[in-house]
Amino acid sequence: KNIVILISGGGSNMRAIVEYVAQFGWQEAGLARIAAVVSNEPNAAGLAFAAEKNIPTRILNHREFTSRESFDAALQNVVDEFSPDLVVLAGFMRILTSKFVVHYEGRMLNIHPSILPNFKGLHTHQAALESGVKVHGATVHFVTSELDNGAYVMQSCVPVLADDTVETLAARVLRTEHLIYPKVIDWWVNGQLMWQNGQAVVKNGEQ
Ligand code: GRF
Questions:
Q1: Of all atoms in ligand 1, which is nearest to the CA of residue 11?
Q2: Does ipTM exceed 0.90?
């Protein structure tokens, strides 16, 4: 299976996934490989890490496109060059057109830093602090045209502490993202996670 990861920044989730794939020897076993890492930000720190690991990288700067549609069309070409079975959005900070999303329907995952359906969109940690929730976390979900609303697959939760700042809370959530995102991809690679009629179906354990 070919997995293409899209990033915009630090790429710590991408790193966690790359390290997980290496740890379990998926490439050597012919199970799955990270076929490419694609960034819309030329300076994304994650690109250097991917290159170091000999993963092909591509940069597609959205500022060089006149519309969201033309950027997404070019992005689709770049991603499809690697024949992806799964597209993984890992801190990819662009809203995608529905044409793009439909093209990868059922084979594109995202991680969002909140316990959805709470706190969609940006600034989720700030929103969590302001709302006074005592538990916060992250969600891995399939991507559909509705922002942050595709079928949820796995969620993590962490406590919100009295003296938390956006930074301390974000760091606590991020550590859990690095656990749940590789795990979801593991399920998918091993045929335990499927997309059926707009729903995420997980088959493991005793079922
Ligand atoms: C993560 O919190 C992710 O959920 C959010 O942006 C952050 C990206 O972090 N969408 P990284 O680039 O994976 O380090």
A1: 12
A2: yes
